[in-house]
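Entry 0007
Protein: DUF1329 domain-containing protein
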Amino acid sequence: MTPRRPLAPWATTALAAALCATLAGPWTPAHAAVSADEAAQLRTQLTPMGAERAANADGSIPAWTGQPTAGAGLGADGRRADPFAAEKPLLSITAKNQAAHAARLSEGVKALLQKYPNTFRLDVYRTHRTAIAPQWVYDNTLRNATGASLVEGGAGLQPKGAYGGVPFPIPKTGEEVMWNHKLAWRGASWYWEFFGYQLSADGRWVLAGDTANDTQMPYYNQNGADKFNGEYWLVRSLTRGPSLRAGEAIVGRLHLEESKSASWVYLTGQRRVRKLPNNCCDTPTPFSAGITTFDEVEVYQGRSDRFDWKLVGKKELYVPYNGNRLMTPAKAEEVLGARHLNPDHVRWELHRVWVVEATLKPGQRHTTPKSRYYVDEDSWQALLAERYDANGQLARVPFGIPAVMGDVPATAVVTWGVYDLTSGASYINGLVNERRAAYRPMPAYKDVTFTPDAMAGEGVR
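Output (structure tokens):
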């Protein structure tokens, strides 16, 4: 096991037990579960999800209470309000004063401040630890702590013995933290409608997709452990605009055995469904006009066997959080700034994050040989990242903006994107401003919803 250790110097500067029998292949234990004594911390020093309960030294990060956030549900109009709308920023960080706050800034944020000194800023608000989950998720997380491990699979390490909760609430390795991110609690089934925009290199925002998404995490079927087959994330996405792309659709099924993950796309011009030959890693995603890669969806997604993963430690960092503020403007254009999101509508807070570094293994290929990820300790979702090119230069800054949703209940990423520092192009997905279904919890979908046959039968053009 890789022991926890303090942050390296650069960090301060700079989808059950039943699963085990269903998956094929030899099982070689790689990382073991923690002891019962250590897991008991989830009832005392740690939250039920594995974060530190206590406040930080100066109280700027408060203690976790586990209480729901008032005013954070889905309104009758299908929109979500901002429960903290009355709050004012505690401070604003710009290129001019960033040096004074450098210890709490990621290298990617520093680079954005320098690249866009006249327009990019961080408005930092009071910290609210809003991430909660149902009690049954807490109960499963406790069981996972002593029953889950990472084992060698067909595409790298994968969880064994985990179901319905955070798989590794007391992580010892970088791989465990990143699986916590991929299996983070976001609800079990939901529907939402949103826009995705691409920013061209010459500074024009272009609508890339007006999309309706059905999403389901079978891993979080409350009573489905005995039926879980390893597919942890199912998604069906229907494109309604722009007109050139209306009627296109994509279906994805992500598997713990990552070599079994698959995606299919329906193209209106061909009137047929095609399986995507390479739906992982540094392959550009079709819905983003090729600006983002498959493994940049929601900051990080997909197979991880190309990299060595190092758990660097924890850090107090300014991150986008409780981002309901971004949902309140009536038009998406209001939240799109000159070359980035309009900072008037992005809320930043101080939170503790796990820092994980990914380095390309010898003999492997990837357009990003080195990356660094910042994973929220409360929600287990990656909120910021930095990706370095083959020359060692910081090239891309993925980000995720979580919203607090009391009806789920969860604090989960809704808006995400990537800023390309080299070309100036960007992609932002999950803007719900002009739609009336902002992450609506749904009853469990039938599995057939997420099949290529169903998608073919619904072809519009």
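Curator remark: Residues 9-187+195-206+293-428 form one domain. Residues 208 and 289 are 7 Å apart (CA to CA).
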